[in-house]
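User: Please fill in residues for this 311-position structure.
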């Protein structure tokens, strides 16, 4: 059969109206970036070196005053050390527990286990439900009166009500509950990213490995993980960022509790809420200076562990 001759392909060039449309759509995004990112961050840096002169009720330059106050308070109480310790705990929880579980869950969804479509919905739901609703649902699971967990312990294991701890009020348990929530709520988002990364692996690569008789565990470790390593690297960086940015968990699950569950970001948010804008800006700048090199170091270490695999 003779092939039909094709004419030259016409390349459509952007018209003036197209450029106007693109500009109109981009302007709100640029304004948002300029106001809420550039302006806010630059203003917070200046605020870190300012304070209010209560005699004149004016903002004056303070030099390193706010930073000195922070380090004095840091050395005189265990408030900040406890907040830092609580925040650091999020890294092993998210990087060493949530992330590996997400990799295995994403892999088995890719292999289309039984009811895999149902599990896709289960993992996706936390990402479309408000974090407030999700947090309250988790908290109600451990409610002393109506919580499913408490009812299970009392009815299934005959544990007396008085022997069941107040999960979010006990200072020895409350922080562990926040870590548990981090795993419970965070695994769904990670699974979506991992599943998407695995789905982009050429099917020929996976089929070739199976023909060679490779097992499930080796397939994950030797093939899947090296190929999706850039995604894992990005998610590990997010885990480090969580150490310095997590404030929603104590805000939702343990509001008003003692410092046993407070994190770095939660303390800063609370300080801003109380009107300590300039001291909060200084504290935020201090932890930014600490966080940036740590994040860059972790990213560099992760990138050196595996070479980028072209597929």
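Assistant: Residues filled in for all 311 positions:
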């Amino acid at each position: 059969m003779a092939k039909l001759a094709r004419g030259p392909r016409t390349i459509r060039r952007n018209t003036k109206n197209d450029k106007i449309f693109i500009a109109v759509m981009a302007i709100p995004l640029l304004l948002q970036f300029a106001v809420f990112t550039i302006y806010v961050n630059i203003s917070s840096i200046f605020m870190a070196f300012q304070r209010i002169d209560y005699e004149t009720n004016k903002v004056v330059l303070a030099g390193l005053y706010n930073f000195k106050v922070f380090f004095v308070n840091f050395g005189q109480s265990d408030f900040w050390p406890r907040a830092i310790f609580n925040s650091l705990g999020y890294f092993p929880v998210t990087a060493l527990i949530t992330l590996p579980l997400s990799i295995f869950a994403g892999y088995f969804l890719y292999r289309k286990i039984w009811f895999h479509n149902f599990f896709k919905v289960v993992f996706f739901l936390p990402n479309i439900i408000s974090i407030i609703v999700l947090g309250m649902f988790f908290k109600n699971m451990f409610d002393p009166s109506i919580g499913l967990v408490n009812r299970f312990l009392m009815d299934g294991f005959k544990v007396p009500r008085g022997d069941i701890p107040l999960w979010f009020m006990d200072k020895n348990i409350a922080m562990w509950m926040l870590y548990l929530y981090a795993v419970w709520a965070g695994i769904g988002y990670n699974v979506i990213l991992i599943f998407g990364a695995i789905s982009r692996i050429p099917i020929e690569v996976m089929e070739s490995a199976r023909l060679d008789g490779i097992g499930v565990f080796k397939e994950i470790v030797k093939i899947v993980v090296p190929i999706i390593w850039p995604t894992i690297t990005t998610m590990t960086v997010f885990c480090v960022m969580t150490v310095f940015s997590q404030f929603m968990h104590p805000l939702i699950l343990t509001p008003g509790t003692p410092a046993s569950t407070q994190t770095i970001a939660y303390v800063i948010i609370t300080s801003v809420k109380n009107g300590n804008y300039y001291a909060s800006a200084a504290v935020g700048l201090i932890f930014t200076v600490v966080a940036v090199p740590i994040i860059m170091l972790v990213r560099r270490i992760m990138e050196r562990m595996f070479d980028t695999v072209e597929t």
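For context: The two ends are 36 Å apart (CA to CA).
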